[in-house]
Design goal:
By secondary structure, the chain is an alpha/beta fold. Helix content is about 30%, strand content about 20%. It is built from five helices and eight strands; from the N terminus they run E-H-E-E-H-E-H-E-E-E-H-E-H. The longest helix is centred in the N-terminal third of the chain and has 15 residues, at about 30-45. The chain is globular and about 45 Å long.
Length: about 190
C-alpha cells in the first residue's frame, strides 16, 4: 500500500454506547474496538484529522433515540475537543451533514473508515465517499456487524454479512485493508 496522505482523515462511524445493546444480537469481530483504538491513537499521534460520526435516530425506540445513553460515544473512543463531530440521521455520513464540504474546505482527499455497522453505515458512507471522488480506505478489521435475517427468513452469520459487505466495497468504492497495514504505512 502506498503511504497515507499527511492529512488522511480517520472517520469513526457510530461507535456509540447503543451498539452494546444485547437486542442487536450476535456480532462478529470482537477485536474491532481494539483496532479502532489503535487507529485513533496513531491519528492523534500524527496529528491527522479525526472525524467522529454519531447517529441520532428519528425512529422512536431506537438505541440512538435522542436523550438516551445509547447516543453517547463509547468512552474509550470519545472525541477530543478539537476533533470534528458529525451527526447524521440516516446511515450515510455524507447525507445532509456538511461532511463533504468540511473535507473539501481542508483539502482532505483520503478517508480511512472504521466503525459500525459494516453493512449499513460503514458501507453507505464508503460508497458515497467513493462516488464523490474521495480515496476511501476501509479498515476491515476495525468494523463489525450483527447476524442478519434476509427477506426469505434465512439467518446469515455476522461473519458472512461482514465479508460480503467488504467485498461489495472493494469492487468499486474503496480499498479494504487491515489495521496493521494502515499502521505500518501511516508514517
Amino acid at each position: 500500500m502506498e503511504p497515507l496522505a499527511t492529512n488522511a482523515a480517520l472517520v469513526i462511524i457510530d461507535m456509540q454506547q447503543g451498539m452494546n445493546d444485547p437486542n442487536l444480537g450476535r456480532r462478529n469481530n470482537p477485536d474491532a474496538e481494539r483496532h479502532i483504538q489503535q487507529l485513533l491513537n496513531a491519528w492523534r499521534q500524527s496529528q491527522r484529522p479525526v472525524i467522529h460520526v454519531r447517529h441520532i435516530s428519528r425512529t422512536p425506540g431506537s438505541v440512538f433515540w435522542p436523550g438516551q445513553s445509547g447516543c453517547e460515544f463509547q468512552q474509550a473512543l470519545a472525541p477530543l475537543k478539537h476533533e470534528h463531530v458529525v451527526e447524521k440521521n440516516v446511515p450515510d455520513a455524507f447525507a445532509a451533514t456538511g461532511l463533504e464540504r468540511w473535507l473539501h474546505m481542508r483539502s482532505i482527499k483520503q478517508l480511512v473508515i472504521a466503525g459500525v455497522i459494516t453493512n449499513n453505515s460503514v458501507e453507505s458512507t464508503a460508497r458515497s465517499g467513493g462516488n464523490l471522488g474521495f480515496d476511501v480506505i476501509v479498515a476491515g478489521d476495525a468494523c463489525y456487524t450483527f447476524d442478519q435475517t434476509d427477506l426469505s427468513g434465512r439467518l446469515w452469520p455476522a461473519e458472512d454479512v461482514h465479508a460480503l459487505s467488504l467485498s461489495n466495497l472493494a469492487m468499486d468504492y474503496a480499498r479494504v485493508v487491515d489495521t496493521a497495514e494502515l499502521l505500518a504505512d501511516g508514517d
